[in-house]
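ARCHIVE CARD
SHELF: 3
SLOT: left
DATA:
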Amino acid sequence: MADDDVLLEKIANHYLFYGSFHSDLGLYNGKMGMVIFFFHYARYTGNSLYEDFAEEFLNEILENLHTETPISFKRGLAGIGWGMLYLIKQGFMETDIQETFKDMDEKVMEYNLLYMKDRSLETGAKGIAAYAHSRLSVSLQGELPFEESYRQTLYETYPDVCPEQEIWEGIIGHNIKAESLSWKAGLGILLKDI
């Protein structure tokens, strides 16, 4: 077994045992990141057990979302929504897009990208814009999310928000060596061709 495969197996086993105790729902350090890791690992190994865990964690996330969940990309709705849209694009999940994302879309429109002082990806306007652009990219023809004025502001303020590679580098590029048993390190291996 190759070194990468051994490390991936250790990471997967660690999060199989301890992942459900993790309280952060977010993309960067929480369950949404684990969900993405497990879906990719299931595809990599061909073992549906990991897909079952990914689905279980995703259900836990959805059950724990509420009106007070922060909007941020790092720990909140924008990142969770972006992660779910990523899973749809990768063929890991299917859903009624309009129904699933309706509440998130409404929450996102509460934030005016023009006037947000924090413009960062992790906690500010760029993260919300990353979600909105991703959401628009999976819309069905004629069923665009967000009001026209919001889409116009989005395109004017953030016409070309983060490419996926920049997002992944932001998520998994945070001192992976210090977190050798993290799902981020595992994603770094699984997505090394990003």
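SLOT: right
DATA:
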Amino acid sequence: MELLCCEVDSVRRALPDPHLLNDERVLHNLLVLEERYQPAGSYFKCVQQDIKPFMRRMVATWMLEVCEEQKCEEEVFPLAMNYLDRFLSIVQTTKCHLQLLGAVCMFLASKFKETIPLTAEKLCIYTENSITPCELLEWELVVLGKLKWNLAAVTPPDFIEHILHRLTLPKDKLPLIRKDAHTFIALCATDFKFAMYPPSMIATGSVGAAICGLQLDIGYCSLFNDNLTKLLAKITHTDVRNMGSVDCRLEKPRLKFWKFLYNKNGI
């Protein structure tokens, strides 16, 4: 008898809606709303006394590893970091509670974006049981209260499909460009320097970095250097000068990511 593999993805994922992508009002509303969900300034200077930037980077790296191991949607980690930054910008927190806060933010983000969200018990295991499910649920209410239950934040992944839809790109390269753009966004979220940039700018720079990493043929010569920068800036109404600074800063995450792949897979 011939054995057939009938395994399918148990999670149903929605496809991009062409009506939403073609409607300029959707992109316009995202651009209008994005500033509402940014952290209120550099909180390391005016709010936090016990927590330092390197501590944020450590907990962010841990959160990213958890999301990758659990195969979360690409939107979960950037959204969780948005919650974390917004909370830290208004509430003074001790370093002993930082991992608990990170777990709560992942818990909330997965509920908002995942079909099957992360469980409190599973997140506690990832902290080596340094926190309990009861503590996590108690802090969930604290974080929700401080964020005023406003969880529908605009993050860089929200702009990816809108940007790609407005570019003339080879269809066979789109999955790779999309994947690389999400990778750059995740790496940017681990670095506090990028927290002050608007999500649209991070998304624009990430797509630009992803496209520049490909070897496109001469038929797509309009997507090189200044032409690409100007086109991307026009789509999201981004200042070209600011976008250039984002692209420059993306080079460091790019090298880190390639080094990580080399060490992990021997590429």
